[in-house]
Design brief:
elongated, four-stranded antiparallel sheet, 10 helices, single chain, two-stranded parallel sheet
């Protein structure tokens, strides 16, 4: 019944090496997302021959262009798609405020939530006092049991009235709490992801947000370590 957040990388930018390689040497140490971002920036000035020794390496070019000169528009060409599981509806209510990301979320109108998992807030999971933690978990379990019982009652009663399953679940979901687990696929360009992660891993951000976006950052660091892997953007 209790579940914790999990982030999975589903897709990311894959370059077509032939046209890029005709114009610019593709550096072996760069990921596809980084190569595309560098290509976009160098296309602006046709500096594919890397005239500046200080920014000859892709990592140096990206650090200077993105972080020093603040030309983040070139990072909009590379994208990544992540799957968030084990997150609460409260989490996604905040996440979708970032309108420059694209979302596909589990539908409570079509999916039976009678056996839905509940997401325990990080503050409760982190409690050191075993008695206090057990008390909080018992309270959550009690609330979850009551709401899911009422959900089942509403579903059965409304089905008896001849409503469709979609109509029934649409109405019954009203009693489900914010801690109900949901799943959501999110796609964004690297500039958008950077802005969201920078804001949502700040100390004043929601605790679940900080936890999930920390996981997201680690996945994005695999496809663009220069942008997400170091302390530069923390």
């Amino acid at each position: 019944m209790f579940i914790e957040p999990k982030v999975t990388l589903l897709a990311s930018t894959k370059i077509n090496e032939l046209p890029i390689g005709k114009r610019m040497i593709i550096q072996k140490g760069s990921r596809d997302a980084e190569t595309l971002t560098v290509f976009a920036g160098r296309q602006c000035y046709e500096s594919f021959h890397r005239p500046n020794t200080a920014t000859c390496e892709d990592a140096d070019y990206l650090k200077r262009t993105l972080y020093e000169q603040k030309h983040w528009s070139i990072a909009e060409h590379a994208t990544a798609t992540l799957l968030f599981e084990g997150v609460s509806r409260a989490f996604t209510h905040e996440l979708i405020r970032h309108r420059h990301l694209s979302y596909s979320q589990l539908s409570q109108r079509f999916v039976d939530e009678g056996y839905a998992n509940m997401v325990v807030p990080p503050a409760i999971r982190a409690l050191k006092n075993g008695v206090a933690k057990r008390y909080c978990l018992d309270a959550i379990e009690e609330i979850a049991g009551v709401t899911q019982n009422r959900y089942d009652i509403l579903v059965n009663d409304l089905l008896d009235q001849g409503l469709s399953r979609k109509q029934v679940r649409e109405a019954a979901r009203a009693v489900l709490p914010n801690m109900t687990e949901t799943k959501i696929v999110v796609t964004g360009n690297l500039r958008a992801w950077h802005e969201v992660i920078e804001r949502r891993t700040a100390p004043d951000a929601d605790a679940e947000m900080q936890e999930v976006m920390g996981q997201a950052k680690r996945h994005l660091a695999v496809i663009a370590p220069t942008i997400f892997g170091g302390s530069t953007n923390e």
